[in-house]
Amino acid sequence: MPLPLQTPRLTIRPLSAADADDVFAVYGDPAVLRFWNSAPLVDAAEAAEWAAAQGGAHESRGFAQWHVSESAGGGFVGCVGLQPLGDEVEVIYALVPGAWGRGYATEAALRALEYGLTEVGLERVVGIAREANVASVRVLQKLGMRSLGRAEYWGSEWAKYELTADERRIALSA
């Protein structure tokens, strides 16, 4: 599937092991992972392995988590993408703290959703967030995702949202 993807302010491209420092900046930061189900990465070597695996996942299934940077200046913003969540596909986003509050999560996640629903051909994408993570729940709502209530993952409750390809087409034609 063709990448990079563009938004008005961002460039989204596949990850590789060369992105280890950027990946560690986001997934090694306890503040970023405060509402996640996993512990921060331990070092850049672990980040390089994870990034390389994401690049391989993109090649094999057509989607993964991707590197997000500002189109003007190229500053690293975070990661966005699509990933398996059980038998579903989830939109996911994680930004470095310096990029919070600027609308980047919504902008990048919307492009990831469009890519999944149109270019990959997914019929449905879900999103989950801890209810206490008000900013992330708000992103899911801004994406036009519909609340499915609560769902349990990894032994705790999450707010769950979904968007179908049909709902996205209707929203675009309105």
Strand order of the largest sheet: 1-2-3-4-5
Q: Which percent band covers the strand fraction?
A: 25-35%
Ends distance: 28 Å
Q: Under the CATH scheme, which architecture would be assigned?
A: 3-Layer(aba) Sandwich
Q: Which fold name corresponds to the CATH topology?
A: Aminopeptidase
Shape verdict = globular
> What letter string, H or E per element, gives the SSE order?
EEHHEEEHEHEEH
Stretches where pLDDT falls below 50 for ≥5 residues? none
Detail the topology: elements first, then pairings.
Elements lengths: L4 E2 L3 E5 L5 H8 L16 H18 L3 E6 L5 E10 L2 E8 L8 H17 L3 E6 L4 H9 L3 E8 L2 E9 H9 L1
Antiparallel strand pairs: 1-2, 2-3, 3-4, 4-5, 6-8, 7-8
Helix pairs in contact: 1-2
Which key terms come to mind for this protein?
alpha+beta, 5 helices, about 170 residues, globular, 3-stranded antiparallel sheet, 5-stranded antiparallel sheet, about 35% helix, Aminopeptidase, 8 strands
